[in-house]
Amino acid sequence: MSQRESLRAFQARLAERLQAAQARPLAAQWLAVQAGGRACLLPLPQAGEIFPAAAPQPVPYVKPWFLGVANLRGRLCGVIRLAHWLADSPLPAEAGQPSEEGSHLVALGEALGVNAALRVDALAGLRSGSAFTGVLHAEAVRPPWLGACLADSAGRAWQVLDLQALAADPAFLHIAA
């Protein structure tokens, strides 16, 4: 009988701990990255695994921001140069491929249903909501995947990217040149 009571006590303690863990806010909400001189925040629930940048296999007749495809742990993913995607105009032809030193691939979460990875210039760590002091003014017209622009304590602007909205954007899904 004592084993049965200890099992019930264990189950009760476990249930309490699970409830407490669910009630606590996430310590980190975003993955901070650098892309083309811009500081961006990727929501952790939407981001997937991080990989060291490897040269993707080029694909012909695609838009300039689509670098090619890469095998990421057995999953064939399209690789998008985030800095180029965020830019208003295409990169000049002489710019060529940026250096891969320090760059990483951030796969989109599997729940988004798109086999894609964003090539970022550098990782800047994890950030929580408490790391930011306020919201900067947003542009009047902007794509739905472009979230709020947050300011940190040093006054640096961080652009939030909604990866779920990005994965549903027809312009992002249409890679043919």
UniProtKB/TrEMBL annotation:
Residues 27-172 form the CheW-like domain. SUPFAM superfamilies: CheW-like (SSF50341). InterPro entries: CheW-like_dom_sf, CheW-lke_dom. One of its GO terms (biological process) is chemotaxis. Gene3D superfamilies: CheA-289, Domain 4 (2.40.50.180). It comes from the Bacteria. This is Twitching motility protein PilI. It comes from Pseudacidovorax intermedius.
